[in-house]
Every structure is written in C-alpha cells, then in structure tokens.
Design a protein that fits this description.
- With about 210 residues, the chain is α+β, with helices and mostly antiparallel strands.
- It has 2 domains: about 100 residues, no CATH class; about 90 residues, no CATH class.
- About 35% of the residues lie in helices and about 30% in strands.
- The protein has 5 helices and 9 strands; from the N terminus they run E-E-E-E-E-E-E-E-E-H-H-H-H-H.
- A 5-stranded antiparallel sheet has the order 4-3-2-1-9.
- A hairpin with a 5-residue loop joins strand 7 and strand 8.
- The two termini are about 30 Å apart.
- The N terminus and C terminus are likely disordered.
- Keywords: Membrane, Transmembrane, Transmembrane helix.
C-alpha cells in the first residue's frame, strides 16, 4: 500500500476519455468520511498499465496497491481484482455487515451495458443467454483441445502424460470459438455474472 501526497496533477482523478473505455475501469461508492460528511471514493484499474488499483477520495489519490488489492476506506476495505476481460471483483467489505459492489462510473463500458439493460431488457436477456450458450459450447468443444495442448508441454507431459482430445475441429472453427468465447466472457464480466463451471472456459481463451 502506498500513500499519496496531493502535490502533482497526476494525483488527481482524470476524466474518462472515450478511447479509454476498453481498458480503463472506474467504480465509485459514497461513504462517511472522517468528519462524518460523505466522501466519494473512486477505484481505478487500468488494463494497459501495471496491474495496480488506485483509490481516490473526492478526486484525490489516497492509495495504490498491486492487484488483487485491498484498499482501506472508512469502515472497511474495498477489494479489487482484474482479469483478462475486465474487473472481476470490486466490493466494499465493511468491518461488519454485508459487502456491497461499487457502481461503475458513468461512461464506462459497465455503465453503458447497465443502461442498455434498463432500456432494452428483452434484448439484454437475449444477449445474456447467447453468452451462456457460447461459453457452454466452448466448454464442451474447446476445453478438451486446450487440455491436449497443455498436456503436450514437455514438463507437463513428463509428469502427467499426454491427453488425446476426442474433439478435433478445423482451424477456422477453433478461431471462431475463441472469438465467441472472448465476446461472451466480456459480456459476463460487464454484467457481473460468474459461474464456477461455466466461466472456467476463460482458461481456454487465455491460452
């Protein structure tokens, strides 16, 4: 953890630019400050930078930590983690009581996806189910091939032996599965959905 002094303009929270929405993640929560007045705490994680989380209080940077991070705030901590497809955890964990997820800052992809869901709930549900279907297909078809690929690594093969996948798909279909799985994984992250079995498919698209 690293404390920050408000001496430099770089210690202030920058506005979100449109070109940054695919890699810069911003979330906020209002909490009582040391004097009792509400303070807006904003968490920033940037997929293009070193894997760190930054914490701002009313726009001024007050803490920095490597991911996965635990950032202290009045009454508890904010836990943050980042995956290949976006933020996988950004929750306020109080000293007592139930944890709360922070809200995405307006203009971020998470915010835009949430607003789309509120305006077009039917289309939003259809996209969600399409993502589930894509991940399920990847889990059945692509995962065995990923295991075979990993098993052919010399160190793995020496220790565990090799695995022959019962599935052998043409290259163009494998490429399609990778892109479909990646798109579905982004959708799941943007809508804060996760399933231990279904979302293990991301291992294949990480390879």
């Amino acid at each position: 953890m690293e404390g920050m002094e408000p001496d430099s303009p770089t210690d202030r929270l920058r506005p979100l630019r449109r070109r940054e929405v695919f890699h810069r993640y911003l979330y906020w929560i209002d909490l009582p400050g040391p004097g009792g007045d509400p303070v807006r705490y904003t968490v920033e994680a940037d997929g293009n930078e070193d894997w760190v989380a930054l914490l701002y209080a009313d726009g001024r940077r007050v803490a920095k930590a490597d991911l996965p991070a635990r950032l202290p705030v009045p009454g508890g901590v904010v836990e943050v983690d980042l995956g290949l497809y976006g933020v996988t955890r950004v929750h306020f964990v109080p000293d007592d009581g139930a944890e709360r997820r922070l809200a995405p800052v307006r203009g971020t992809l998470e915010d835009l996806r949430g607003r789309f869901a509120r305006r077009h709930p039917g289309a939003s549900r259809a996209i969600g189910w399409a993502a589930v279907a894509a991940l399920a297909v990847n889990l059945v078809l692509a995962a065995p091939q990923a295991v075979e690929f990993v098993s052919e690594i010399p160190r793995v093969a020496e220790r565990f032996g090799t695995f022959d996948s019962p599935v052998d798909l043409p290259a163009w279909l494998n490429i399609g599965l990778v892109f479909a799985g990646a798109a579905a994984s982004v959708e799941r992250v943007l809508t804060f959905r996760r399933n231990r079995v279904l979302d293990i498919e991301t291992i294949w698209t990480d390879i």
